[in-house]
Specification:
Helix content is 41%, strand content 18%. It has 174 residues and is of the alpha/beta class. The strands form 2 sheets. It has a 5-stranded mixed sheet with strand order 5-4-3-6-7, covered by helices on one side. A hairpin with a 5-residue loop joins strand 6 and strand 7. Helix 2 (65-81) runs parallel beside helix 5 (154-169).
Length: 174
């Protein structure tokens, strides 16, 4: 009986350690990868060219209830801060049929760029994204300052974006 109890404790501790590791550093990334997004309109957006601006990269799927729920909030955020230097890029997962992504983007009237990740390369570059929504808030210097699996806290996200925009607007800020 003692061996079973010991094994159970070891197993529970291993699961807790794994959960802690995933919670504290789910992607392992500190800096945004140097990738190029291909949008539905055929535009190429290079992450390097976005330096100097706060960027939210959010991976989503047409079948993801959380993704669909947060889209109106992301639209508001983009419409409010997009002209102030903030960029938001939605990345449709590789398993999403491109025609469905196009339909949903049109239905939802998404004003921000939507990229297709046809071969899964973008998800891989951002630390093997598998769950949606998964979002990365990138500071103007290219550092990932927030990585969230699941729906974003929009109030907190708004505060962070405002801070990044105002920090960049200050003379002498980097």
């Amino acid at each position: 009986m003692k061996i079973k109890e010991t094994l159970a404790v070891v197993f529970i501790l291993a699961i807790a350690g794994l959960a802690f590791w995933l919670w504290t550093s789910p992607s392992g990334l500190k800096w945004a990868p140097e990738v190029t997004f291909s949008t539905l309109e055929g535009e190429k957006i290079n992450m390097q060219e976005l330096r100097g601006r706060p960027v939210l990269v959010t991976f989503w799927a047409t079948t993801c209830p959380g993704c669909l729920k947060e889209m109106p909030h992301l639209v508001e955020l983009y419409e409010e801060y997009g002209n102030g230097g903030f960029e938001l890029i939605g990345v449709a997962m590789s398993y999403d049929p491109p025609n469905r992504v196009l339909e949903l983007a049109a239905e939802r009237q998404l004003p921000y760029p939507i990229a297709l990740d046809l071969d899964g390369g973008l998800a891989s570059a951002f630390g093997n994204v598998m769950l949606t929504p998964t979002s990365f808030l990138v500071a103007p210097d290219g550092k990932i300052i927030k990585h969230k699996i699941g729906e974003m806290d929009i109030v907190e996200l708004r505060r962070q974006v405002e801070t990044l925009i105002h920090t960049e607007a200050q003379p002498g800020s980097v």
